[in-house]
DNA sequence: TTACTTTACACAATCGATTGTGCCTATTAA
DNA sequence: TTAATAGGCACAATCGATTGTGTAAAGTAA
């Protein structure tokens, strides 16, 4: 039972004022209050003023639950990410929350922990929370997409980001990985490198496949024949970067540059190269991918590709809001590809005069 | 108007089944459905089975809005953090989400962007969303805490973490910073260092004040007189670490160790020391604070204090759930201090035989 | 057999806001 | 002067689940 109706209310807690309270005080109906607050045309300006004033006086806060229940739509956007760790997802979430709150929405976050079953449960929860739309980055173990059918059948706006369902039937926002591979490789070519190795990731993951394709495109464009021996496949961690570099340097014709599809493997590669007495970038230029925080700390500072995390979040929200605002009207799914940004740093700059002084600031971010 | 009531429903969207639908199908009242699903004693086992079966058949998902509206409490926990960036807050949020979802709650996240006004708005929003409880880490600009009074007056469970309101009247979870400063300094003492400098942060922030106090405690315990010249105050970024080290090394009696109250300033200090030709840790040992990702990448790998981010999130949720479960009963506020963990790495290890080989793995985290 | 429980379910109010419809009073057009 | 229109507000149903109370039927004790 609501405490407010009791004769002896607990002295420690206060109930929020409702529209009914305002209506009583003003001697009008709740209809009038509701419409006055939402600036409905059928309420006179005088009454609107009175209502607004009273609402301010009592610091009236609408009960979003009641509103959402009645309207069938809340002001909540659901997010499902594999996890909230590392650099990428937190930044995307940051972008999402910022853009969403600017549009009057709040976000409710779920982690799938890379588990399809959990992803399915999260989806159910968001559905039962009556969210206005859902943003998803797929778990690694998601191979079957049927659980998203239910979302579609409810007519609930859905946008994938980063780890997406392929095809033109879904709304999606991704980084243009192929472009990233292309500009990275072109940059190395522009530095005079001709035997450019590639540390590639698992090719069943689209991001790695596309980065490799960009690499191939740039080489082809430059008329450089592909040497399969220069492409090393792994899971892209630091250890594997070390191993990869060891192999590459033992080739009869070792590379003069490395485009790694990930920063961690690039780091390992760089460490191993230096351990073997090579100078980076003079003997071997190195570029990474993802713009992890440590790329600026590394010595030399590592050239990398920024993944536009925040922009991705913003773009995802923009697209989602479009679908939400279409309000059930037929909406043709759209795929957005963000332009990656090449951050050129010392690990790939062959001209010493272009290099930045060592010990450069990490960033303006003060924790 | 609800589409489900129309004669010609849109063919593309399906409405979720409600309790009313189940009741109609079974020819019983909604009361029965509701109570059967919540295992109420007044429903017979046979009926319970029938209801459960039908609910499963139709994949019935309760409308959490309706439930929350009626019960006056949702299954949502509100979080307010300054931002979702860097290493600390995302990890805490990770811990919070994990612990909360385990307990059947979901989290709705707000960023204050270090702005009190935004923090106030976020609080209003969470209140109007009827959350079951709120977790807050204060913005830097929050000096006045009156907006939290409204939360208390509603009887809404509230727990602060990391950046807290001081005093024993609030629930709070923090890292024991004093202990962190103490163990760091003791560690340096154990390495034979005797002139230990301290890079201190703004003393109006409790975390920095406490870290400094721990440093003082350890020195006093070791019988080493305090030399104020060895304490350098700044805002703790990399640049200021460089400047600090420059000053310290120009002292008539330069230090043989540095305990920095932050990793970024420790990094700057380390870079400057090496630039001046000193060897770390042999000439000067260095420790940081926060266990930022780059501490493992740095050369030498940097000794630091782990802030127990995830544990902090978990602890905050545990405490919040206690208050929630107390359900209005008088609850004596509690303050929890987490034990920091000293991660000893090469930057402070004077005995070469104890050191880890360079090029050690960053971590098992594969992005 | 009578009286009293217990079991099993339905009725109906309720949470707080929204909205289609209806009604009355001015105002304007014819 | 009459009719038509617009303005301004109230009524009451509604969203979907929860819960105090009422009431039969079945079971138990006296």
TrEMBL record, chains A, B:
Highest taxon above the source species: Bacteria
Keyword Nucleus among record annotations: no
Pfam families hit by this protein: LacI (PF00356), Peripla_BP_3 (PF13377)
Cross-referenced CDD domains: HTH_LacI (cd01392), PBP1_LacI_sugar_binding-like (cd06267)
InterPro entries to which the protein is assigned, alphabetical: HTH_LacI, LacI/GalR-like_sensor, Lambda_DNA-bd_dom_sf, Peripla_BP_I
Keywords annotated in UniProt: DNA-binding, Transcription, Transcription regulation
Coiled-coil features, chain-numbered ranges: none
HTH lacI-type domain mapped to chain residues: 17-71
Gene3D superfamilies: 3.40.50.2300, lambda repressor-like DNA-binding domains
Protein name, per record: LacI family transcriptional regulator
Native organism: Hymenobacter lucidus
């Amino acid at each position: 039972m609501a405490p407010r109706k009791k004769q002896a209310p607990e002295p420690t807690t206060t109930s929020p004022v409702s529209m009914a309270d305002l209506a009583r005080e003003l001697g009008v109906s709740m209809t009038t209050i509701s419409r006055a607050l939402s600036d409905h045309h059928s309420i006179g300006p005088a009454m609107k003023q009175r209502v607004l004033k009273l609402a301010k006086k009592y610091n009236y806060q609408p009960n979003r639950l009641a509103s959402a229940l009645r309207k069938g739509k809340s002001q909540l956007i659901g997010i499902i990410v594999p996890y909230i760790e590392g650099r990428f997802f937190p930044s995307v979430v940051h972008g999402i929350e910022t853009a969403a709150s600017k549009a009057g929405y709040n976000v409710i976050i779920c982690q799938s922990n890379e588990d399809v079953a959990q992803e399915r449960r999260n989806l159910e929860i968001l559905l039962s929370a009556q969210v206005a739309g859902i943003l998803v980055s797929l778990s690694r173990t998601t191979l079957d997409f049927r659980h998203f059918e239910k979302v579609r059948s409810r007519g609930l706006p859905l946008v994938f980001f980063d780890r997406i369902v392929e095809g033109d039937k879904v709304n999606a926002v991704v980084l243009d990985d192929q472009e990233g591979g292309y500009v990275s490789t072109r940059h190395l070519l522009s530095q005079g490198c001709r035997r450019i190795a590639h540390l590639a990731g698992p090719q069943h993951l689209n991001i790695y496949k596309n980065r490799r394709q960009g690499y191939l495109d740039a080489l082809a464009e430059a008329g450089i024949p592909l040497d399969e021996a220069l492409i090393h496949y792994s899971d892209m961690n630091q250890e594997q970067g070390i191993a990869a570099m060891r192999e590459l340097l033992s080739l009869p014709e070792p590379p003069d540059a490395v485009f790694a599809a990930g920063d961690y493997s690039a780091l390992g590669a760089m460490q191993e190269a230096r351990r073997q007495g090579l100078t980076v970038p003079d003997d071997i230029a190195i570029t990474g991918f993802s713009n992890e925080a440590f790329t600026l700390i590394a010595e030399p500072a590592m050239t990398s590709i920024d993944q536009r995390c925040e922009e991705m979040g913003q773009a995802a929200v923009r697209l989602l809001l479009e679908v939400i605002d279409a309000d059930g009207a037929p909406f043709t799914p759209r795929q957005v590809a963000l332009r990656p940004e090449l951050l050129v740093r010392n690990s790939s700059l062959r001209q010493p005069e272009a290099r930045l002084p060592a010990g450069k600031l990490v960033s303006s971010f003060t924790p």
